[in-house]
Write a structure and sequence with these properties.
mainly beta
C-alpha cells in the first residue's frame, strides 16, 4: 500500500455555536488547509464538536474536501473525521469517503493519521488507487 507523508498548514475560523437542543451547544469550526509533500492540495474542513462536564472528554466529527494532486495524480476527494477525547486520552479516525475521488483520483481508498508536534502539523496517508 503506498504511503504519502508530509506537512500541512491550518487556518481555523469559528463559525458560531450549534443548537443541540435543551441548553446544549456545540462548536462549529471551519479549517482551511494547505498540504505539502506527495499530497499537494488545499482543503476545506467543517467540524462540529461537543465537550462534556468531565474535563478532558469531548468529541468531534468533520467532513473535509481536498483538491490537488497525490503522487502526481490530480483530482479531488473527501474525508471523514471521527475524534474522541476520553478523559485526556485521544483517538482519531480519518478515512477517505468511498467513491469520492474524481478525475485521476477516482477509486481512491485510504486512511490518514495526523500528528501535531510543537504546533507543526504532519499527515500520513495510507492509500490505494487503481492503476493509471
Amino acid at each position: 500500500m503506498p504511503v504519502a507523508h508530509g506537512r500541512f498548514d491550518v487556518k481555523r475560523t469559528p463559525q458560531g455555536a450549534l443548537d443541540l437542543g435543551g441548553d446544549a451547544q456545540g462548536m462549529h469550526l471551519r479549517f482551511d488547509k494547505t498540504f505539502e509533500g506527495p499530497l499537494r492540495a488545499t482543503s476545506v474542513v467543517h467540524m462540529m464538536a461537543v465537550g462534556t462536564a468531565v474535563e478532558g472528554s469531548a468529541g468531534y466529527v468533520a467532513i473535509e474536501r481536498l483538491d490537488g494532486t497525490l503522487d502526481g495524480r490530480s483530482g479531488a476527494f473527501s474525508m471523514m473525521h471521527f475524534g474522541v477525547m476520553d478523559r485526556g486520552h485521544p483517538s482519531l479516525r480519518v478515512e477517505v469517503v468511498p467513491d469520492s475521488g474524481t478525475d485521476e483520483l477516482t477509486g481512491l481508498r485510504g486512511t490518514m493519521t495526523i500528528d501535531i508536534t510543537n504546533g507543526e502539523h504532519a499527515y500520513t496517508l495510507d492509500y490505494t488507487l487503481p492503476a493509471a
